[in-house]
Amino acid sequence: MKRKQINCWIPDEVFEKIELKAARLGMKPSTYGSKILDTWATDDIPLTPIESELAKLLEKEKKKPSTAKQKSAGKAVSSEQI
Fold this sequence. Notes:
By secondary structure, this protein is an all-alpha fold. Helix content is 60%, strand content 0%. It starts with 11 loop residues before the first helix and ends in a 10-residue tail after the last helix.
């Protein structure tokens, strides 16, 4: 499996929480952080408020009937228009 490394800055409080949870599981913080990111990317579950809001908006958009369908709904289409 090919791997890439990401380096990012996180607040001390977040690192401390990751460090504690990793220690409870007998892992290094970097390994635990990698598992968090892997789960986030694989499960495609929104983790941040922005992601959650975007997911809601996209779901609403999927449920709306297409505007193109609405415009052509009452009109007959001739073979010349196709």
